[in-house]
Here is the input.
Amino acid sequence: MKYLVIGLGNLGRAIAESLTRIGNEVIGVDINPHKIEAVKHTISGAISLDTTDKDALNTLPLNEMDAIFVTFGKDFGTSIQTVALLKNLDVNKLIVRGISPIHEAVIRSIGVAEIITPEDDFAGMYASQALLGELFKQWYRVTNTHHLYKIKAPTTFVGQTLQTIDIEENFGIRLVGIERPRTERNLIGLKQTQYSVIDKITGDLRVEEGDLLILFGKMEVLHRLAEI
Here is the structure.
């Protein structure tokens, strides 16, 4: 697939290089020639130009891209102007880094549907990890208020049925899935742990040691799980 990444700061560079590593064709764009120099050997192509200039922007192969990322982290004006021009040029999928609530409101008003907020995501993950401690495995944002959490099954749950535990009633969070480990040998005979998803959640299902619980709900209730 083909991607255009506009803004080659820390986030933009990381996105561009990660997409390239997994086999995609990526063009990076930034007005700063030093940032172009830093990535020219690690992505498919890098171009120095002013993306607030419509004529300059129009020289890029915009319609060939599967998605365009706009990743400016500080320059509110440059981000808004770039996004407005891209929308005017009727590009395909546009993904924009949100800088502030006002910035997000403005870019949504001009038709941007996909906004990434890495600072908020890191804060959410860190807060979840701090609350859950050793139980924490993964965190995913679903909405501003509700998230998905993958946690190790607390030892007090092991051996009990889901009906007895009643996670939603007692802890205010919903169980949506369980990943259960199993040990297998690979091609060279070494043991490794693989996880299978239990997608039929019934009240008589017993929690086993090593289970990973997939939960959906608000962060405010996590302390109830951490305290058991």
